[in-house]
Amino acid sequence: xxxxxxxxxxxxxxxxxxxxxxxxxxxxxxxxxxxxxxxxxxxxxxxxxxxxxxxxxxxxxxxxxxxxxxxxxxxxxxxxxxxxxxxxxxxxxxxxxxxxxxxxxxxxxxxxxxxxxxxxxxxxxxxxxxxxxxxxxxxxxxxxxxxxxxxxxxxxxxxxxxxxxxxxxxxxxxxxxxxxxxxxxxxxxx
Length: 190
What we know:
- By secondary structure, the protein is an alpha+beta fold.
- It has a single domain, classed as Substrate Binding Domain Of DNAk, Chain A, domain 1 (Sandwich), CATH 2.60.34.30.
- It is 24% helix and 33% strand.
- The protein has helices spanning 17-24, 38-42, 94-103, 108-122, 130-137; strands at residues 2-7, 11-16, 46-50, 54-61, 72-83, 89-92, 146-155, 164-173, 186-187.
- Strands 1-4-8-7-5 form a five-stranded mixed sheet, with no helix packed on it. Strands 6-2-3-9 form a four-stranded mixed sheet.
- Strand 7 (146-155) and strand 8 form a beta hairpin.
- Helix 3 crosses helix 4 (108-122).
- The longest helix is centred in the middle third of the chain and has 15 residues, at 108-122.
- The two termini are 22 Å apart.
């Protein structure tokens, strides 16, 4: 699975949208970054990487043999995503994530319904339908049910004028060692 051309607003977020909606149904969004997301990270609801404004490519692999270690640098962290039956996992920009969580209590569909008209007015000639916005700006990440430790790799020889490229090795695990969870996000720039 590959995602291309992601707008990150400086933070690459993989979010369990279903769990965000449940989490924020009775909580206020904390804008203190990254500490305000620490409980979400600990619960496996989000995975975050501080990076450039955009990311060129994110590849996902379930087998490390798919990753050419001569081309990719490993970045040590210990974070995961928890996926239950019916959960929706998406890549989402930091701006969209904060708006979804703060103003719409984690309800992504309500956020898109409310903001799409304004986004289209502000981007004449690049208007998108709701379906296009979900497909291109909030791409679905098809993960099977389970607890997935995310091992992060970045392209070793980034072009100075290019955006970051990542490989995410998804490693299924049964238990999570909460003491090892990295609450400070990886910082990886081109």
